[in-house]
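tool_log.txt
---
The assistant was asked to compare two proteins side by side. It first ran the structure predictor on the initial sequence, then on the second. Raw inputs and outputs are pasted verbatim so the downstream comparison step can read them without reformatting.
(1)
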Amino acid sequence: MNSNRKYFWILTLLLAVPMLAFSAPGTPYQGGGYGGGQGAGPGGEGRREPMSPDDQLKQMTKNFNLTADQQAKIKPILVDSRKKMEDLRNDSSGDRQAMRQKMMQIRQDTNDQVRAQLDDKQKEKFDKQEKEREERMQDRRGGGPGGPGGDSQGGNPPQN
């Protein structure tokens, strides 16, 4: 009887370990903008929390070699953007399309304000990273404005 119990526990462990590996959380979200290629992986792991303004600033400082003066000017921009995004997420109006448009506008405004604080070399690198981010977003949505889920103008899905 004791050996049956032993085999039961060994079998249970052998079955449980692979399940734990698949259910373990991935790397915490490092996206939220300005991070070079971090976020959901090729498997599209779903939504994760955006980076804090402090973490964004650290990432930007590393990526763009920001001066202390630039950091002091950019941090309030990131804090304000984060607050606006949180307020928008907490708004329960329910119109997802309008919410998405507002989020895109907040992001664009933030990018414009941040970009204004950068020198020409930093702007070039910033623009490149933003272009890569947009391409990754289009790939996740299925190919951009014409693809499934990528129609930023709303409308009806293609009929089969």
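(2)
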Amino acid sequence: MNAKLEKALKRLKRILPLKERQAECSEQIRELHQHVLHSFVTRGRILTREEMAQRVNHLEDAVNVLRDSELVVFSEDGKPVGAYPFTMEAREHKVRVNGHQVYAMCALDALAVSPMFGMKTHIASRCRITGDPVNIQQSGKTIENPDEAGDIHLGIAWGAVDADTCCADSLCMEMMYLRDSKVAQQWLAEDLGNREIFTLPEAVEFADGFFVPLTH
């Protein structure tokens, strides 16, 4: 991992220290969190509260820990709706995995699914600027359709971080695919102080470094 990626990885971990928060949980809650993640690739959806209750002694205590640590995102009425990198919300980043179509929180998150679970994925999204389709076939950290994927870049608008809003509804909304280097450079130039771009191989390495530790 090059210096640029190491710096970005540390920055994201400071904003959203998921692995550290997971490690602070009890063994039972850590295992529940991992079951929640695996549910997206085995069931194509998040665990329900009833299914969560079967795995812990005290559901409400577990829910409070998962919510407060942002390991699981809940709706206002307490329904589980997401766990990075996944969401039940219909977002622009669709991921086909293990026969299921699921949604990723953001462009970076979509690239994490294949290395996290050791399964091939197909990501269908779009360039945030031009609207052009993005199609990525992935196996682990390998892009299997490099000709079709082309010169896709990942853009992150770090300035979208909001201390009063969970990352799912702030920073994640400003992690996007950009069609090619030219579009990415133009987008970057509009706000050099708060934006950063990555090539697709860099983005895969970034996603792997941030998310894979959550599965162990």
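---
observation on (2): The chain has a mean pLDDT of 96. The two ends are 20 Å apart (CA to CA).
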